[in-house]
Structures are given as structure tokens and as C-alpha cells.
Amino acid sequence: MKAPASVLVIVTRRIGDVLLATPLIRSLRRAWPGARIDALVFAGTEQVLEANADLDRVITIRERPGLFEHLALLRRLWRRYDLAIATIPGDRPTLYAFAAGRYRVGMLIATPKHRWKQTLLHRWAPFDDLDTHTVLMALRLADLLGIPRQYEVVVAWSGADEERV
User: Fold this and answer.
1) What's the alpha-carbon Rg for the chain, to the nearest Å?
2) CB 139 within 8 A of CB 122
3) Half-sphere exposure of residue 16, counting CA atoms within 13 Å on the CB side?
């Protein structure tokens, strides 16, 4: 795929899942160093990414937002990114990717119940949380994009964090 100018990585799950998405984010940064790369996460998990040099911005949404908060986010994201990546197979991450990206990839559960989400994504990888590590699942998305995998889980500290510790 042609190098995108802007990428949104959607990781709306717990803090561990956000941290384990950093190899995918690193893969994106190494493949497309000039791209603007943002992440969308649940409020309360953003601290694990705030000092990550592979990201330009971290966007948050509450875990259980109301309808108007959802609509405001969708309006703010609408087609602002060349590429949107849903690392979680849920309805909301897939809808966020659909709204945000002109080109969209994501994880999907390969069952008839979830088949409707295939129409919202250009490419998808099967989600398998029983037999595949979370890092390797996220890196399947790098494979779909044709970029080399980077396996390093990135834990970054700010200067203030270091002083506090």
C-alpha cells in the first residue's frame, strides 16, 4: 500500500492491550516515518502511550460514553485519516475505524454474527485470542498492510515520570 500521511490505531481495551499494541505502532512508524500516527484509547489507559515517541497524539474516549459523546467523536474523526486500524474486533472499534479512515483494516471474529463488519473494512484478519498472543494478532494487521513486523513492546517514560520514580 502507498504510504499514508495519517494513521489512527484504535485500541479500545484495557491497559495491557494498549501496551501490547505498541509493536504494531512501532511497525507503522518504521514503515512510514513521515506519517502522522495517532491512537484512540479508553480514558484511563492513555498514560501507557503518552511518552511513546512512535505516536503523534493520543485521543481518548470514556469506556461507556453516552450517545452524544459517541456522535461527537465520530464527527471529529470523520475521514480525517488515510488509514484506520481496529486492533480489537468489537463493534465500536470497527465503527470508529469506518468513520475515521478512508482505508480501513481490523480484526474480526469470523462468525456469521460478525460478518456485517466485513463491509466496513477493506481488509481484515481473524481474531484468535485462544491460540495467538495479543502482540502476534496485532502484527497480523502489519502483514495485511505489507509492512515489516517490529516485535518490541514499547514502554516509554517522560522526564516527569522518571523523576517521580
Assistant:
1) 15
2) no
3) 2
One-letter amino acid for residue 51 of the chain? A
Cα–Cα distance measured from residue 133 to residue 131, given in angstroms and rounded to the nearest whole number? 7
Q: Which residues contact 143 (CB under 8 A, 6 or more apart)?
A: 125, 149
pLDDT for the residue 164: 80
Q: Is 107 helix (H, G, I), strand (E, B) or coil?
A: strand
H/E segment holding residue 47: none
Question: Mean pLDDT in each 10-residue stretch from start to end of the chain (165 residues)?
Answer: 94 93 98 98 93 95 91 93 96 95 94 90 92 93 96 86 79
Would you state the cell numbers that stand for residue 67, as one nine-digit string?
450517545
- Give the global pTM: 0.93
β-bridge partners, 6: 36
Cell of 69: 459523546
**What's the CA angle centered on 70, arms 49 and 29, to 5 degrees?**
30
pLDDT at res. 100: 97
- The answer to whether residues 138 and 128 touch, using CB atoms and an 8 Å cutoff, is no
In this structure, are residues 25 and 154 in contact, taking their beta carbons and an 8 Å threshold? yes
